[in-house]
Structure formats: C-alpha cells, structure tokens
C-alpha cells in the first residue's frame, strides 16, 4: 500500500472528486480526515468509507485552525493535504456581481491559502519522519485556457496555479512538496450542473446531446471520472513522487493539446 502510516486531510472530501480521493487514500493505508461543509457534501449522502468527517468552511480562518487542531490532536502530523474544495459560477465578467467574484475567490483561492497556511506546522512535523510531506492543490485546465462564461472561475484557478508554484519554492527546503492537479471535464455534480445551466453549459439544450458533444471534443472521446483524478493525486501524495514539486499536472484527456475551434 502506497500511503501506509500517513495522515491526510482532504477538503471537499464529501464531494465527487474529494470522496474518490478519500476512498483511494484509505485503500492505500492512510488515516484520512474528510473535511467539508456537511457529512453528505455535494452528493447529499453520508459516506461509510472509514474516514473521519471534519466540518470545515474553507473561507473561515477559525474553521481552518480548528480542522488542523483536530488533526494535530489525533496524529501530531499531517503528511498529505489535498485542497479539493471548489465552486464554479457560470457567468461572463459583465454578468458577475461583486458578491459572485468575492465568493469565487473566497472558496477557490482564499480557501486554499487558509488551509495550507494552518497545515504547514503539521506538515513540517511529517517531513521530520524522513519522507517529504505532500500538499496538493486543485487548479484547472481553465487556469491555462478558458471556457466561455466562466470568468471568475478561470481567474481563481490562475491564482491557485501561481500560489502553488510560490509555495513549492518557499516550502520545498522544509521537506514539503507542493503540486496542483488541473482537471478538464470530470463527471461530477459540478459538471452535471454545467450541462443543465444557463451559462456556458446547457442553455436549455438537450443534456444527452451536450454530454456527447463534450465527449467528442476530447481526443480520447470521453471525459474523466473522479477515480482518474484520485489515481494521480495518490501518486503525488506517495513517496514515489518524492522529486515532483512545483508542477501543474493537467489531466484532461488531451483536450488542451488540440486546436479547439478547427472545423473541417
């Protein structure tokens, strides 16, 4: 097992991607804290996966402090932090209100900052055990290129990418590796909301045809699953990835490798 003896905390740990990461970590031998707003998270159902639920609103500094105190009291260290909590608002910059903008940054960027900030002392303790600690943020392929109607979301993910590189430089000497996963289209409640929404997703169209159109635009002719993301996250969390840091790992089925608008 790749993560035996390690302690992990996953924000958004009751959501689609977060829950897959939690389950894989447990399978690989880790002790896992699943942090989210509610035990059901975005899937609205409790998880019986062996993890410990921690109530965490990533936008609140005291919640971040409390979560790390819970981990510290249990394990005294934190080997792995995964910042998977996130939201998506489907609007252009003109349609985006200041409240929308601030909320997007509060969850996607400030939330990553707060949990990372208060996890660092515990991650330094983990690094003292002889293997590096691993901090994994969630960016997006939308931090490199842009889907229409996702202005604030794209901006937040660009911020996470820059923060990831900065943290990797600052904390690498302390034995803490920092990377970001940059997913493309992944089959989660957020994606299904995108298909049925009035922004850059459904706009009242037929959901089945939209789903197939999204599959077809990928070179691999499919979109990803939470398990695909969990596979890469698990490797980055493990000691096999001891030399991987400061990188933005795109996992999008080849989507961003091609010229999107070429029509023959």
UniProtKB/TrEMBL annotation:
Keywords: Oxidoreductase
Record InterPro entries: NAD(P)-bd_dom_sf (IPR036291), Sc_DH/Rdtase_CS (IPR020904), SDR_fam (IPR002347)
Keyword Oxidoreductase: yes
The UniProt record lists the keyword Oxidoreductase: yes
Gene3D superfamilies, alphabetized: NAD(P)-binding Rossmann-like Domain
Family from the record: Belongs to the short-chain dehydrogenases/reductases (SDR) family.
PANTHER family assigned to the protein according to its UniProt record, in alphabetical order: DEHYDROGENASES, SHORT CHAIN, ESTRADIOL 17-BETA-DEHYDROGENASE 8-RELATED
Name used for this protein in its record: SDR family oxidoreductase
């Amino acid at each position: 097992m790749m993560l035996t003896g390690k302690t992990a905390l996953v924000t958004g740990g009751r959501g689609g991607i977060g829950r897959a990461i939690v389950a894989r970590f447990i399978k690989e031998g880790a002790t896992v804290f699943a942090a989210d707003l509610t035990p059901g998270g975005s899937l609205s159902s409790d998880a019986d996966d062996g993890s410990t639920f921690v109530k965490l609103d990533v936008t609140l500094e005291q919640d971040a402090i409390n979560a790390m105190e819970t981990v510290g009291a249990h394990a005294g260290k934190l080997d792995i932090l995964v910042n998977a909590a996130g939201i998506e608002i489907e609007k252009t910059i003109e349609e985006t209100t200041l409240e929308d903008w601030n909320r997007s940054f509060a969850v996607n960027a400030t939330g990553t900052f707060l949990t990372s900030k208060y996890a660092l002392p515990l991650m330094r303790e983990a690094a003292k055990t002889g293997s590096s600690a691993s901090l994994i943020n969630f960016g997006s392929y939308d931090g490199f290129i842009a889907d229409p109607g996702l202005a604030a979301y794209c901006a937040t993910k660009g911020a996470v990418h820059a923060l990831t590189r900065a943290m990797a430089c600052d904390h690498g000497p302390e034995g803490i590796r920092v990377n970001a996963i940059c997913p493309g289209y992944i089959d989660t409640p957020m994606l299904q909301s995108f298909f049925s929404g009035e922004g850059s997703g459904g706009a009242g169209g037929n959901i089945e045809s939209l789903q197939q159109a999204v599959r077809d635009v990928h070179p691999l002719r499919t979109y990803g699953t939470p398990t695909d993301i969990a596979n890469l996250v698990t490797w980055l969390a493990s000691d096999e990835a001891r030399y991987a840091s400061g990188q933005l790992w795109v996992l999008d089925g080849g989507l961003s490798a091609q010229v999107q608008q070429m029509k023959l």
